[in-house]
Design brief:
It contains 6 helices and 3 strands, in the order ααβαβααβα. The protein is an alpha/beta fold. The model has no long low-confidence stretch (mean pLDDT 93).
Amino acid sequence: MDRLKLLLDSIDQGSVDAVVEAIKAARSIYIAGNGGSDANASHLALHLIECGKQAHNLMAELPLLTAYANDFAYDEVVRKRLKQTATPEDCLVVLSGSGNSRNIILA
């Protein structure tokens, strides 16, 4: 419990506020994660949609994901989808437990 309190106390509120403002200002929010982070991305997209935002989990469409991976490479899946659909008015939220997923880093 002490570890969790230390972690929560270390969060920079200014950074959290900046993320909230970026999401509020965005035309669309694109979200990406792998594994458990992908499940969290779907859950986040649901809540953003419930709040009236246009939100898309980039990893949610399995046939499209595997087609991109087959035609290009798995590492390119998120980046390629963003390049084709996102605009400068959009926001990208990436979720990663390790911070080392190449497809997330390249996005």
